[in-house]
Amino acid sequence: MSTKLRWGILGTGNIARQFAAGLNASQHGTAVAVGSRSADSAAKFAANFQIGRHYGDYQSLIDDAEVDVVYNGLPNHLHADWTIAALRAGKHVLCEKPIAMDAHEAERMFDEARRANRMLMEAFMYRSQPLTAAVVEAVKSGVIGKLRLIRTSFCFRARKTEGNVRFVREMGGGSLMDIGCYCINFARFFAGCEPTAIHAAAHFYSSGVDDAATGMLVFPDGLLSSFTCATTIQADNTAYLCGDEGYIEIPIPWKPPKRSEFIIAHGHPPRMDQTSAVTPPCEVRTVECPGELYGIEADDFAQCIVEGRPPRISAEDSLGNMRVLDEMRRQIGLRFPGE
């Protein structure tokens, strides 16, 4: 693919900075414009990432005729309106996760994408990575037997909570929306279907959003999945795929390093009552990443647009994830304005 798509970046926050850095190293895309609610922020962002045009509002970027694709890195509550505006302006859109505040918003977004005949995809970056593809092949090969259990963790301790969008209910905050969505997406992806039962519990921060949550999904044929997510707690942030003949451990599943590893283990775990436990036999597989993480994601999306390949994350996939999030928020009692 020789076509180089011209990207406009909505937002200048941390995730937008990471995406812009990756896009600069991509093969099939280049950033030509950035839009922010602050003209000063947009100008600084443009200078840092060698972007030619910068706007102190979002609409000007949407109206830029030189932009082919929009990356929406705005806070959750702005995903739907600005994604729809970009689609109506004839742009393809890569929208950060979670794609919307709820499933109803997401349906509106994908309806508009179909009407506009433009590509819309939710940006779960890990899904485009070689590590994820390698783990998928390992599971399909039967090396761990029948998949029976999925366990994931995604937690961090936010040092600054005041003004942090993750802690603002009106902006779609909360650990479930911010990072629990990864765990849900991972489980549904490897299960290959939607859950038949959903359970959730949470701890709430003083601002009215969950700062820690646990969830369990039950899939057809008895496959179980459990996860923990938190924005005020530290954890190992690993993923496990457990079968009846072994298990796979992914030490860094969400933001893999250039040289990634996953572990395939067989046998019984060490006995807890032995002084010199013997660990089960295992195989460490290494996966090389050929580029920058977000650059790979951008190129993956570009191939969908130019070559007509189905998106890595389909509309049905995103809608399924939002429906699980909606149900979990209902169970923990987290409602957003207008619901």
Named CATH architecture of the largest domain: 2-Layer Sandwich
Query: How much of the polypeptide forms β-strand, as a percent range?
Result: 25-35%
- Provide a count of the helices: 9
As a percent range, the share of helical residues equals 25-40%
The neighbouring-strand order within the major sheet is: 8-9-10-7-11-12-13-14
CATH superfamily of the largest domain: Dihydrodipicolinate Reductase, domain 2
CATH topology title of the largest domain: Dihydrodipicolinate Reductase, domain 2
Domain count, please report it: 2
Oligomer: single chain
- C-alpha termini separation: 44 Å
Kindly report the average pLDDT value.
95
Order of helices and strands: EHEHEHEHEHEHEHEEEEEEEHH
Uncertain parts:
none
| Category by helix and strand content | alpha/beta
Keywords for this entry:
single chain; 339 residues; alpha/beta; Rossmann fold; Dihydrodipicolinate Reductase, domain 2; six-stranded parallel β-sheet; 33% helix
Q: Can you walk me through this structure?
A:
The chain has 339 residues and is an alpha/beta fold. Helix content is 33%, strand content 25%. The protein contains nine helices and 14 strands. The protein has helices spanning 14-24, 39-48, 58-63, 79-88, 103-116, 130-140, 175-191, 293-307, 315-332; strands at 5-10, 29-35, 53-55, 69-72, 92-96, 120-123, 147-155, 197-204, 210-218, 224-230, 239-243, 247-250, 259-265, 282-288. Strands 8-9-10-7-11-12-13-14 form an eight-stranded mixed β-sheet, with helices on one face. A six-stranded parallel β-sheet has the order 3-2-1-4-5-6, with helices on both faces. It is globular, with a radius of gyration of 20 Å. The mean pLDDT is 95.
